[in-house]
Fold this sequence. Notes:
It is a single chain. By secondary structure, the chain is an all-alpha fold. It is 65% helix and 3% strand. Helix 6 packs antiparallel against helix 7 (138-151). The longest helix has 25 residues, at 831-855. Mean pLDDT is 88; it is low at 9-15, 17-40, 531-535 and 857-863.
Amino acid sequence: MTKIGRCKVFVLAMFIVAGSVKTRAVAQDFRHSTIPNKWIEPMLPEDLPKLELPDYIQKNPLSKARAESFAGRYKLSLKTLGKVKNGPPAQIAMIKAASLSAIGQRDEALVALGDENIANDPRIELARARLLSSIGRSDDALTILRQFVIDHPDSIPGHYYLGDVCELAGKHDEAKTAFDFFEGQIDPWLGKARPYNDAEEVTLLGRGVDRWAIMNGKYKGAEHRGLNQVVLSIFTKAYDSIDHAYWPAHMAAAEFFLRHDDIQKGMTEIGLAALGNPHSIELLNLQGEVAISSFNFDAGDAVIQAMQEINPNASEAQLLLARNLLRQQQPREAEAPLRLVLQKTPKNLEALGLWAACHALRLEDQETKDALAEVEKIDPQNATAYFEVADQLSAMRQYPRAEAMYLVCKQRAPFWTQAWNGLGLLYTQSGDEKKAEETLTAAHELDPYNYATTNYLKLLEQLDRFAQKETEHFVVYYDARLDPMIPVYFPEYLESIYASVCGDYKTEPPVKTFIEVFPRHDEFSVRTSGSPWIGTVGASTGRVIALVAPRSSPGNQFGSYNWAQVLRHEFTHTVTLAATDNRIAHWMTEGLAVYEEHMPLRWEWVPMLYSAVKTHQLFTMENLTWGFVRPKRPVDRQLAYAESYWICSYIEETYGHDAILKMLAEFRTGKQQEEVFPQILGTSIADFQQRFFDWTDKQVAGWGYDAQTSKKYVDMVKQGEKLIASRKYTEAANLWEQIAKLRPVDSLPQRRLAGLYNTMNKAEDALPHLVALDKLELFNNIYAKRVARIYRDLGKMSEAGEYGLKAVYIDPYDLSAHELLKQIYEKAGNSAGLERENHIIPELVEWQAMMKKQQEIPSDQAN
């Protein structure tokens, strides 16, 4: 569908999510969390349940054929229709044409509708016009429809289909005139001036009123606030009162909800429509668009397969395939299905818009202009093709280029909410919050019921109330009342890592980086996805880094965490995105961000990686990025992070850091990894992948997870635990030291040794094990505090201060950590640090009292 205002689901993936803080939750992709698979996984023909029909229909072949066709049993309908002996010719032709058209035999369908004896039947005329439009003969379709509304000036279907075909053909002024008819239908509907007992006519009435309202900006303004409910009431009347089985009314309601980004209600309506006809190409196309917009590419593939099972030549399936490939950043591959569509229908505006998007993603600016020029030959004031280009560029974080395209859409179709939304969300992601607020406010006026717009406006209002702390390279936004620790530590730390991270990639961001710290997790989630859930604490669009406040409190599911490590990870994204003009491969920006954390291999990754190496389940280079975006198993996203880190480590070790910099430079020019690897590393993707896999075999060789070592490890652990239980601490410590050598990348021996030496009052012996544990502890500052105390007692004040500060970083609201740091600064003679802690501690005590009191207030009274 290319008409302006088609359903567009704003499920965003512009933020790059930190992988460093996912150990407390299953790595669920937030983009799939609100869309049950049962609503987007289509039925193939062999899966269709038997159609249960009343006896009176079963006994009437014509009625049975009509019911079978309406329910998506198209071939069965044609078979049943062959049993009809003396039925009404127009009815037979309508059923036959509908079924033939659905399975791709549209020429035969035209023949069925072309009998001169039925040519003047109004239903035949409308069916013929719609069929002609579907095969690209819009001029012929419009000739029929224009005459039809002259002959039938009160026809709701006639005016609706005239407007619809005009929009698809790019004739927007004529479409607007056609839809103006529906303004005069609102009062008769509200006043029940005539009986409405035809579900099809009522559904088209709702669609027509909606199109009139959109094209004339009638959802805007207080006087039209009830219009939204009027349209919904029309669809509800069709399927709830007139005909419970009329599934197209559910599909119309689904499109209505999805255009307002009310995904849950939209998908519910899709599910209800699919109960009526799981093989409607239009409904499957809608399902596919939602799946792809939600980055559920497997579901998109399934929809495409189902469409092709029904109609092997369905242009809708080819267009959906192109969308699926484009969203997966495969513009070259997307060209093939688009060629097939354009060969059959050269003036297909949707295909031409996607064709332009393919060139835009490949940085082929002249080819993009040429493609858009072809569009404008057909539709001089076209907005849809520019929207396709803008949408794809925005998803690739090509903000300036996407903005230019959105501005064309906005200028040409000022009533089109989706264009305003797209531009406003782009400004939000790129950090231009003033423009975002202006644009989204305008979008909200056009469509006051859009969920994503409303959520983002609330977010922008909140950001406007945030306090700011600006430094040379950063602006930190935070809630001054709820998070007073943020401006004390964040700016100082950020400036301390700036030169290091930028130096590693020989790039400085062109503008200051915004750090937005949200007091509650649901607010952070809206910032990153437009929805109130995402399973992490940090995310980046490039210029904007969003975090959840690092503290334990209601509304923060992760509690305190090492925000400094997360910020270093996210700022690395900012730098590598700047280095490549946002064109870095997803796996590489994630791998470099983890690499830049300067951390050992995480404990929980070790058995996962060992298993993946030994069972040959590491991702291929081709599939690695999609381990992040469309994980098939709970372990896939963690494995994608770990493997990406490994690959970057392997490149650094084998080819040197300059190779990384050269690869980034090539990605900046728009080259794909298939071109970059041979050019920079001197090897094909396939050869690189095999060499990397060989390297991973060597990496895991000494980990102690092979069968023989594992058996020995289990036996020794049992013995070690018995020795601890028997309080034979010296013997236990000796055995656990052996276990640690047996499995050097296992946290259990480190924990046991730290505890044993602590119990034996051997702090110095405990120290290396506590340090090892602290390096990989993300959520708890217990190890950092213990290490700081040991170094303090040993008189090593520099080291004590380092770990004392880290304890504060992990939990800035831990009073005991601040008191420990104060003691260290006092003993070390660090007057600046001591002055800061003397100022902070009383403030923190007051803050804790306030938070305790606030938590005692009922939630509906607290703010």
